[in-house]
Design the sequence.
């Protein structure tokens, strides 16, 4: 049995940072027993789940732009989605909602800010 967890690197103590590997690096490391297959299956599962769930949105701050979400999606899934396709998918899935605010402080025109919609499961937890 294996468990998958995605954690913000800022929450991991500094002394453990030397033990962290990028997913692509870890997948290429020689591992004993069936651990290579377990790791590969976990990476595939995480990437698949990210394509049909709100998982990537939970890796962002409370408010974010669609560009931010698209960037996280690209990192988690390992593929760069098209802008219009991505906007349509996010709109259709409904897991993010506009905050009514705009981003500020960038070099380009302000972008609309979004947040996770707060869709909950029957037991009251946020649906991922």
Sequence:
């Amino acid at each position: 049995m294996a468990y998958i967890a995605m954690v913000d690197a800022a929450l991991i103590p500094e002394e453990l940072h030397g033990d962290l590997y990028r997913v692509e690096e870890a997948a290429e490391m020689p591992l004993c027993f069936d651990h290579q297959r377990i790791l590969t299956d976990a990476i595939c599962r995480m990437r698949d789940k990210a394509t049909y769930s709100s998982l990537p949105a939970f890796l962002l701050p409370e408010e974010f732009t669609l560009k931010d979400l698209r960037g996280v999606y690209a990192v988690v899934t390992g593929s760069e989605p098209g802008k219009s396709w991505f906007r349509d998918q996010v709109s259709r899935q409904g897991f993010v909602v506009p905050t009514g605010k705009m981003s500020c402080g960038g070099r380009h025109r302000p972008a609309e800010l979004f947040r996770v919609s707060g869709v909950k499961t029957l037991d009251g937890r946020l649906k991922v």
